Inverse folding.
């Protein structure tokens, strides 16, 4: 099976702009989670989607949003970009939403905000 | 929420076993311990997980203490390609039966020739 794919891999934006990142999960996986990774904070949970519904949300401002489509592909959007939004954004997929599901990660999108 | 504590860095000689410790003293009875690793600038890679019993797969072994307050990931014959940051994570189930992984900063393992 093909793994989790994320596009684009690299992105450079300026403060105040908005950005949309895309994630295609492993075929058959219905749960998609998003994480932000920065050197100082480590990996932080953003949100999780299952069957087009947001199931869980981390502690991020409303500028961060996401959605999931009927084919399980997901997008996340960040509006009014700030310098602190520069990070590696990771997407992970799993078959379902349960405590025993293993998540599989994509390569990430490296966002740089200037 | 259960949290984990790992040493920030470790070294290991190539061909030797790498034993990576993790403390999770506040873990609840139904929470799993997961291990992932992340090679520089790539997405985390799943290694292994367990609840109570020791587990082994083609990549590693996971030893969980009887009280479940700590665990050790064992890479039996470390190679240079095992150089990565290793994360020990506890799977949290909240009231809505949703779950999220609580990530720490992991252990940076350097395998030396």
């Amino acid at each position: 099976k093909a793994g989790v794919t994320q596009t684009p891999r690299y992105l450079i934006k300026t403060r105040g702009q908005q950005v949309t990142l895309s994630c295609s999960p492993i075929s058959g996986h219905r749960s998609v989670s998003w994480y932000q990774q920065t050197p100082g904070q480590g990996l932080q949970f953003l949100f999780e989607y299952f069957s087009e519904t947001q199931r869980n949300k981390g502690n991020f401002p409303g500028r961060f949003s996401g959605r999931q489509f009927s084919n399980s592909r997901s997008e996340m959007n960040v509006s009014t970009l700030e310098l602190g939004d520069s990070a590696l954004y990771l997407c992970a997929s799993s078959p379902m939403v349960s405590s025993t599901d293993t998540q599989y990660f994509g390569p990430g999108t490296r966002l740089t905000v200037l | 929420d259960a949290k984990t504590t790992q040493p920030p860095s470790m070294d290991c000689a190539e061909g030797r076993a790498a034993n990576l410790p993790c403390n999770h003293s506040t873990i609840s009875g139904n929470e799993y311990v997961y291990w992932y690793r992340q090679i520089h600038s790539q997405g985390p890679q799943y290694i292994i997980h367990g609840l109570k019993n020791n587990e082994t797969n083609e990549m590693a072994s996971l030893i969980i203490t009887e009280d479940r307050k700590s665990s050790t990931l064992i890479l039996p014959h470390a190679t240079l390609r095992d150089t990565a940051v290793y994360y020990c994570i506890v799977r949290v189930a909240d009231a809505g039966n949703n779950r999220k992984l609580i990530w720490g900063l992991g252990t940076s393992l350097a395998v030396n020739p």
In short: Chain A touches chain B through 26 residues (CB under 8 Å). Chain A has no helices and eleven strands. The radius of gyration of chain A is 13 Å. Chain A has a mean pLDDT of 92.
